[in-house]
Amino acid sequence: MSKIITVKTKPYADQKPGTSGLRKRVAVFQKSQKYAENFIQSTISTIEPQDRQGGSLVVGGDGRFFAKDAVQLIVQIAAANGIDRLVIGQNGIMSTPAVSCLIREIKAVGGIILTASHNPGGPNGDFGIKYNISSGGPAPEGVTDRIFQISKTIEEYFICPDLKVDLSTIGKQTFDLENRPKPFTVEIVDSVDSYANMLRDIFDFAALKELLSGPSHIKVRLDAMHGVMGPYVTKIICEELGAPANSAVNCIPKEDFGGHHPDPNLTYAADLVEAMRGGEYDFGAAFDGDGDRNMVLGKHGFFVNPSDSVAVIGANITSIPYFQKTGVKGFARSMPTSGALDSVAKATKVQLYETPTGWKFFGNLMDAGRLSLCGEESFGTGSDHIREKDGLWAVLAWLTILATRKQSVEEIMKDHWQKFGRNFFTRYDYEEVDSDAANKMIKDLEMLILDAAFIGQKHTAGDKTYEVEKADNFEYSDPVDGSISKNQGLRILFTDGSRIIFRLSGTGSAGATIRLYIDSYEKDPQKIYQDPQVMLAPLVGIALKISQLQEKTGRDAPTVIT
Ligand code: G16
């Protein structure tokens, strides 16, 4: 019989969830008194008491350092707050897309995901707690605002301190709680099973098996970067679809991701890029810590920009069996994502939505039956099969296209540009900039570009001149519920359709990260194969000059270029 006790606590002022959950250094969660307890209680407090009774909560995460402690705390606090059942991935491990899938499958009231995504882990790395609602999607701003409000005034939390679960054994564990008529249940489930079942319904596994292990199979290399994706890649790609075991690397989830950033981009997935350059593999992909992001590479390391990736999937969408059944309801991309998907939407007469950065903004459109496929420049691709971006889904979508078109990644991409034109895109990240300097730079820039005199100005770099057509701080009005999200990024739009965008990241844990995005469309077939960095250099120069970024932050180069 476990006791429920009330513990007095003091609020913290800094528990505002960012783009996707609360992310802080591990030390903040571990060493600040009751920091994690406060946030977990504030989160659970947003669940209505009637939904807790008879309700289930899914718990999973990328297995990073401090996750096991956090799972035990969630169990103890959820039980004390009257949640009837927790369904937890074995050893606390479950990818973000798999959590979304399971929430939907068992009709849970929501889920808690323990991840800081692509941020580094280990005792000196980051930890994160994210709440997803009953649709399976990240909590919308209305809910995260409530969590933040509660966290600012919290005075006590409820906990069953003696309750301990065995996270390693699959099966049901029940616990009697003092003064509770019904026992509290914890179910430990296989992390992969229900997600793999879902994928079997979406894709043609027989065709994929032929592609990966038939007589004229292609060679793939998938890098799980020691994040949560190891077991998924091993079971689905290797064991079920027959790719040789050595097709998958870094598949043992590690608490510190082997000391690396589990971030699938050209900088942090450099090993994969190197291996692909050798020319042995036809297709390569990497995933982030929690398995929702993906990077796709072709033979010899041919890089598929994420904005192009979603556009290619959009242009070939009917080769995926799921969409043959559901039809194509709409496309969406986040505002900074290049306009490549827009061209496909226009040509195929599909409605296109432009949302702020953050997967949570796609959820309403999907729930309303208006959106089938969406993507973000930040290596996120997905569809309405769940309410999170889905790294392995994106890989299977690409493999389906390869199987259907019988072309290489590079040929598919080049054909696409020939047909639709090419959006040259790059993103510069300036990580861990002094917060005050970053905020001031953005404020000054906002003042400058919102001034009426800014419109019509001509900016020249080299032999290129661009005229400002429009400038604003992006604001989104949700077409489903009418909610307004302001201050979503500074945009400078030029008369030729090129765009310069600045925004502050909402996923960092220390200092500020400034992101600069450049998007420029080219339809001249003679020019579409140029190097994006060369092609976009004039616009980068103009962006740095207008923003005075280097002078105001002291940074003369970005940390990461995509
Ligand atoms: C999260 C969100 C994404 C967003 C990304 C980047 O990804 O889920 O929708 O695009 O952050 O956000 P920011 O530019 O604010 O850093 P993840 O994979 O970190 O959960």
TrEMBL record:
Q: Which NCBIfam families match?
A: PRK07564.1-1
Q: Which PROSITE patterns match?
A: PGM_PMM
Keywords noted in UniProt: Cytoplasm, Magnesium, Metal-binding, Phosphoprotein
UniProt GO BP: carbohydrate metabolic process
InterPro entries from the UniProt entry = A-D-PHexomutase_a/b/a-I, A-D-PHexomutase_a/b/a-I/II/III, A-D-PHexomutase_a/b/a-II, A-D-PHexomutase_a/b/a-III, A-D-PHexomutase_C_sf, A-D-PHexomutase_CS, Alpha-D-phosphohexomutase_SF, PGM
Listed name of the protein? Phosphoglucomutase 1
Q: Name one GO molecular function term.
A: magnesium ion binding
Keyword Cytoplasm present in the record's keywords: the answer is yes
Q: Which residues form the Alpha-D-phosphohexomutase alpha/beta/alpha domain?
A: 15-157, 194-299, 326-420
Q: Name one GO cellular component term.
A: cytosol
Q: What is its main location?
A: cytoplasm
Task: Tell me which domain of life the UniProt entry assigns to the organism this sequence originates from.
Answer: Eukaryota
The entry sums up its family as follows: Belongs to the phosphohexose mutase family.
User: Where's it found, cell-wise?
Assistant: Cytoplasm
A Pfam family found in this protein is: PGM_PMM_I
Look up the coiled coil feature and give its residue ranges: none
Q: Which CDD domains match?
A: PGM1 (cd03085)
Q: Does the keyword Cytoplasm apply?
A: yes
